[in-house]
């Protein structure tokens, strides 16, 4: 996987996301999803640029069905932002890098 974003699974979600002291953006994606693949390089850049301010993790919805269902993920790509164990924002779709960065700065 990429160097600036990390994978997260149903098993590690509680520890990696909900218990994180840093805001966490969770990218819900799948291998077969073209817009998800187009979004990935942008998230890599943002993760590098905002290191220490926000953590970006990726959850494959095909391999981890429990967590997306728990948060009502119906379409991908979907990005949920968590801060102090609570969901504080959501973006659905492949957005321009600037929009994602602004979203993070506003909510994180």
From TrEMBL:
One of its GO terms (molecular function) is protein-disulfide reductase activity. SUPFAM superfamilies: Thioredoxin-like. The record marks 27 as: Deprotonates C-terminal active site Cys. It holds the Pfam family Thioredoxin. The record marks 34-35 as: Contributes to redox potential value. Residues 1-108 form the Thioredoxin domain. Belongs to the thioredoxin family. GO terms for biological process: cell redox homeostasis. One of its GO terms (cellular component) is cytosol. InterPro entries: Thioredoxin, Thioredoxin-like_sf, Thioredoxin_CS, Thioredoxin_domain. This is Thioredoxin. It comes from Pseudobdellovibrio exovorus JSS. Disulfide bonds join 33-36. It comes from the Bacteria. The active site is at residues 33, 36. The lineage of its organism: Bacteria, Pseudomonadati, Bdellovibrionota, Bdellovibrionia, Bdellovibrionales. Keywords: Disulfide bond, Electron transport, Redox-active center, Transport.
